[in-house]
Amino acid sequence: MVRYTGLPETLKLQVYDRDGRRCRWCGSTNSGPYDVHHIAYRRGSSYDVIENLILLCRRHHNYVHDSYQIPKQTAQKILLLCLESPGKTGAQLLRWEENEKTVEERPRRFFGVSDSDGRP
C-alpha cells in the first residue's frame, strides 16, 4: 500500500482561488485557518482532483467529519451541491435540504427553475 503524502501546493492554491479564499460552508473569509477537504473519501492520489476538493474553515471541516452533527452522506451531498452552486454556502444548502420533501422539487424550488406548468 502506498502512503498518502498530501496535496500538492499548486492544487491547494487552485482550490483557494476557485473558492474565493473563503469557507464554502459558512461563506466567511475571516474564519481561518482553512483546510482543503476531500468530498469523496480519499483513497490515494486518484482522489486529489479539484472536482473532489473544497475549501472549509477548520470549524466546518471538523463539523462535516463529525457524524454526530451531520450524517456523512448528507455532508458529501451538500458539499457537491456547493461546487455546482458557486453563490450558495453549505449552510444555506443544508437548510434547503432539511426543508424539502422530494428530490423532484429540489432543483425547481431552490434554484428558481420553472417546469412546464409554470411552477417555480
Regions with pLDDT < 50 over 5+ consecutive residues?
101-120
State the end-to-end distance: 51 Å
Measured on Cα atoms, how large is the radius of gyration?
16 Å
User: If helices are DSSP runs of H or I spanning 4 or more residues, what is the number of helices?
Assistant: 5
**What structural class do helix, strand and pairing data support?**
mainly alpha
Overall form:
globular
Give the overall average pLDDT.
Answer: 76
Helix % is 40-55%
Oligomer: single chain
Number of domains: 1
For the report, how would you describe the main beta sheet?
2 strands, antiparallel
Please list the strands of the largest sheet in the order they lie side by side: 1-2
Report the portion of residues in β strands: 5-15%
The total of beta strands comes to 2
Could you give the order of the helices and strands? Answer: HEEHHHH
Question: Care to describe what's here?
Answer:
With 120 residues, this protein is mostly helical. It has one domain (9-111). Helices cover 40% and strands 8% of the residues. The protein has 5 helices and 2 strands, in the order αββαααα. Strands 1-2 form a two-stranded antiparallel ribbon.
